Amino acid sequence: MAQRAQWKGFIKFGEVTCAVGLYTAASTSDRITFNTINTATGNRVNRVFVDSDTQEAVPKEAQTKGFEIENGQYILVDPEEVAATIPESNKTLEVEAFIPCSDVDDVYFDKPYYLTPDRLGQDAFAALRDGMRKSKVAAIARTVLFRRLRTVLIRPHGNGLIATTLQYDYEVRSSKKAFEEVPKLKIEGEMLDLAKHIISTKKGEFDPAAFDDRYEEALAELVKAKVEGKALPKRKPVAVSKPNDLLAALRESAGLSKKGSEPKRAAANTNAGKDGGKPRRASTAKPRVSAASQRKAS
Q: Do residues 65 and 82 make contact, with C-beta atoms less than 8 angstroms apart?
């Protein structure tokens, strides 16, 4: 079954407009989920809202929204009043500016969506896509998506565009506060040389297929074992860490055992010569079978 668009509308740049659709680029629907079960009956448990004071169940028709102004004091807000605050939508992603692709810190990135053209607007869509790619810029646009006015970063992506909703400035916490207690240390000498050597030997390329969700696969193995009545998989013992000596750990990582020894660069240089100095891939191993595939197999 073809994927359904999450949103349909238009993208406008200058006086050019074309019809587009937004499609989910990332989904968690294939993850294993659990229901809450009554151990006495084996039946699924339903969620019930209860009054925090009387502990009595509150039917849906008696529920409304409330904003706490003081401890235990609320202003009641009708759901229709909330709905009335949703901005009017003209279903148009109107480009406000074209900016260098690196201008937006990825800490502001929210959710990615694939942006594709309607059949009648393919020429205009391609002109926008190729123009941005040639100019090495991204587009900033705004529109109402999913009942909120959102800022969207639009970039060329393959034959289409990728639209990433952005967090508002007030939603992103200050990095200064997060790092204010990090001491200002200057690493130099042998310690810095060893760190740089380790980094140079670990250079590679990002390959998403090389990274598997081991937690999800472990859950799949657990569920499969329960269904088949087999012994549950045992967790491997955790290896005991060595003493917390940073310099010793760096030397060991670099393949050195004695203080003052030079890092072994010969092997790294030989490898660089064979492939023309290009970085090696992070992993050439085949990815493990996904949790979704295990569920289908079972």
A: yes
CA–CA separation, 20 and 17 (whole Å): 10
Residue 219's pLDDT is 82
Q: 293-297 — which CB contacts under 8 Å span 24+ positions? A: 294/217, 294/220, 294/221, 294/224, 295/32, 295/220, 295/223
Q: Kindly report the pTM of this predicted structure.
A: 0.66
Q: How far is residue 147's CA from residue 79's CA, in Å, rounded to a whole number?
A: 13
In sequence order, what are the beta bridge partners of 18? 11
Q: Using an 8 Å Cβ cutoff, are 114 and 157 in contact?
A: yes
CA distance 173 to 178: 8
Other residues' Cβ atoms within 10 Å of the Cβ of residue 31: 12
Tokens representing 26 are: 């990332």
Q: What is the pLDDT of residues 214-223, one digit of tens each?
A: 778 888 888 8
All structural domains of the chain, each given as residue ranges with its CATH number in brackets, are 7-27+86-171 (2.40.290.10), 190-297 (no CATH)
The token pair at 277 is 């100095």
Higher pLDDT, 226 or 39: 39
Give the closest residue to 17 by CA, choosing from 143, 106, 176: 143
Half-sphere exposure of 35 (CA within 13 A, CB side): 9
Q: Torsions phi, psi of 53, nearest 5? A: -100, -55
- The pLDDT tens digits for 20-51 are 999 998 887 788 889 999 999 999 999 899 99
